[in-house]
Amino acid sequence: CSNENGDVPYFPAMTNIHYQSGFGNTFSTEAEKGALPVGQNSPQRPPKGLYAEGLSGTAFTAPRAENRSTWMYRKRPSAMHGPYKRIKDGLLRSGPYGEVEASPNRLRWDPLPMPTKPTDFVDGLATLAGSGSPASQAGIAVHIYRANRSMKDRVFSSHDGELMFVPQQGSITIFSELGPLEVSPGEIAVVPRGLRFKILISESVRGYLCENYGQPFRLPELGPLGAQGLAAIRDFVAPVGAGEERGGATEQVAKFQGGLWATAHEHSPLDVVAWHGSYVPYKYDTARFMTINTV
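-> structure tokens emitted (295 positions)
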């Protein structure tokens, strides 16, 4: 597929998205054959003139079983942009939540209305509730997302916590630096802290967004229940590499310590051609959840 500038991204057709299965696995994938280095993470001269960059989700001293990191091989350095500048937060909020005094009364919300003017994922975010704060690296925020157009020349990342998407109406494609995930109602998806992505849609969408300030999500233990049941590791899927090669200005919006900041690229920062690692986005079909042990 190509855009109006004639640029041809590696991004596959929406109907031809492939995945890798597993939870917490170390994956390897490349959009161009031979783009992934062999035997080295950061060679002096990566294949095809790419730039090697490491993204860490844990301290580099973390034990092997807990370590989460990914090496990306991209067309241009991710730091090819000017200084970030503060922008308006809109209806997005982060802890500590001191704007309104908490009430012991029962509360309920009607669904938030769909936007009537052109609104992408970032513009349509609204915060309902939360606890803790990004600075303490503990707690969560509960947001609603609403959108009636794709993020065309814009990408987003949260440096405050990982994001769990729960679509309520309409399907979304989360096109991250590591590739695309198509997520529909009945499925959930998680994007790690700090990973850049954009949301693509073909219809108006709405859903829930959980921002986890604390330790990354993990699967619960199975002991008392037996060796099987609940969510199976093989039912979680991660994206296959599919970088976007596109020129033109792209706004990068980052959520950092509760506020929104923006900078600009002269290209798409989603230009990762190959990657390997365990710090990845993933999705899960909740229809596959098994509430009892299978013997």
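The first strand starts at residue 19 and ends at 21.
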